[in-house]
User: Fold this.
Amino acid sequence: MRSQISIVQIRASEIQPGDVVNRRGPERTGWVEVDRTEHLPDGTLVVHDKYQRESFTAVGYDLVWLQTVVALRANSHLVLPG
Assistant:
């Protein structure tokens, strides 16, 4: 199955495990699949990937970019039945 990927902005406080996010904007690099989030005593949020290689910090109201996935119903070159 093929998918259409859209990129939307959300607040850092809304990040959930399994999300694919980027703090730098809708760029080709810098995407992280979220494994867990950690809340520090000062209110800062630390976003970690599964292997602890990629992480970043954010404040709850910071904007991050989230990939959303929608399944495509057909091939791009075939006409859909009317």
Q: What stands out?
A: Residues 14 and 46 are 13 Å apart (CA to CA).
